Task: structure prediction
Amino acid sequence: MHLITDAETELPVAVTIAPANRHDKKFFHLLYNKVKQLFGINPFNNVKLLADAAYDATDIYQELHYDNVKPVIAINGRGFYKSSIPKDPEYGRRWAVERVFSRLKEVFGLAKNKFIGIGKVMVHAYACLIAYLIKYL
Result:
């Protein structure tokens, strides 16, 4: 499951489910475009995108720059230099998405998946997500 979560409310705003052997970065543009379609990106708002080092990529920075969104993304050292986290004080709010995943796994049973096949796994994952939304809305 790949999510974009609102850091203030800890509610998922865009989600997609894919096989585990696909890198997180591959789903950034899909999820980001869903958010833009649903909410729009207003260049006059102080919008930030908080992300871990998996999203440290030039094409992501370019798209965010084009939309006037401030990237607060950890730097991936890629083995050549030391990885680092941004100095922006709001970077710590990125943990909101980790709390969502933790609740989905521990409270709503996402970690107890016993299904084989992407279709069945998707049904289970979306059921967990719906239960999460019912509880926290």
About this structure: The chain has one domain: 2-136. The CA atoms of residues 85 and 91 lie 8 Å apart. Residues 118-136 form the longest helix (19 residues). Helices lie at 28-39, 58-66, 95-106, 118-136.
